[in-house]
Amino acid sequence: MKSAAAIIRSYLMYKPYSFFGTLGGLLALLGLIPFIRYLTVSALGLPGEFIQSLLLGVSLLTASLLAFALGVIADLIRINRQLIEDGLALQKAHQEVQSLTADALE
User: Which of 16, 44, 78, 85 has the most crowded Cβ, counting Cβ within 10 A?
Assistant: First the structure.
C-alpha cells in the first residue's frame, strides 16, 4: 500500500496536468449531465422541480474548475522545483571549480 502511494505521489509530481486534467474533465462531464437532463425535461414541458439536480451539477462543475486550477498550481510547483534543483547543481559545480582553483593556487 505504501508503494502505491509513492507511485501516485511521484506521478502527481512529474505529470500533474494529465492527472488533474483527467479528473477535471471527468467532473465536468458528470456536472453537465444534470443540466442536459434539466434542458431535456424543460423542452418536453414536463413538470417538476430540479433544484437538487442543478445544485449537484453546479457542485461538480465547481469541483472540475478546482481540479483544473490545482493542475496549473501543481505544474508551477513542478517547474519551480526543477529550477531550484538546476540552480543548486550549478551552485555546487561553481563551488567545486572555486575549490579546485584555490587548491591550484596554493
Answer: 16
| pLDDT digit string, tens, across residues 26-76 | 999 999 999 999 988 888 887 778 888 899 999 999 999 999 999 999 999
**pTM exceeds 0.90:** no
3-state secondary structure of 5: helix
What is the total count of domains within the chain? 1
What DSSP string runs through 26-91?
Answer: HHHHHHHHHHHHHHHHHHHT-----HHHHHHHHHHHHHHHHHHHHHHHHHHHHHHHHHHHHHHHHH
CB 57 within 8 A of CB 33: yes
